[in-house]
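User: ok so my PI wants both of these folded by tonight, can you help

Assistant: No problem, let's get them done. Here's the first:
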Amino acid sequence: MKIYDFGKESGQNIISYKSSGADYTKIVKHNKQIQIGCIYIGQEGIVGLHKAPVNQLMLVVSGQGWVSGEEGIRYKIMPGQAAFWQRGECHESGSHTGMTVIVIESEDLEPTMKEIDWDKSVANEKQPF
């Protein structure tokens, strides 16, 4: 599993089209069929442990929660961050307080965001997320 940052600070200022106060962050490149969906994870909700049928990118848009990959360690994840799992990778996600995420699934996903250092994202089990 990899964790990425797609927050405002990761973007580039848009200067075209007489734009101002707007930033753009590239999220993913793909060349094949793609599916995009939204998951609402409720308070104390969980998307149970399963293998990714294709590459999956989960972008947190509101709330906060946790994600885990093959190693089974839960990592805190917040708005502006994304988790990426490769096809066949076991993973799960959940939240103590609720979280809304956009999920992008495709055989040929290639995240283009800045990868986050794992050590800075490790979940603290004592904090509600």
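One down. Here's the second:
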Amino acid sequence: MVDAKSYEEQLRALQEARMGAARPLAERASAVARARAALDEEEARYARAWAAAIAAGWTDAELRKVFKDAPAAPARPRSRARGARPSAPTGVDAAGGEA
């Protein structure tokens, strides 16, 4: 007669085989995350060096002739739509007095 412990051992063996296949996946995912972080840091350093070269007198066009991979432009903060005004806080009229 097979007892519950025997079933558990069989299930653990099956689970261990699955985990064995998942371990290399976890290692590769971790390696990719480290590589992406390193790439992000190097791209930031490259952008700072590019900016320093421009500050030293090079033009963007001159640098682009030599370095085909220009750093990505930094993201600009979004501005309000042209002509849009911020709304006055509740309880205050447009002149700043109490409403």
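The chain has a mean pLDDT of 85. The longest helix spans residues 4-55. Good luck tonight!
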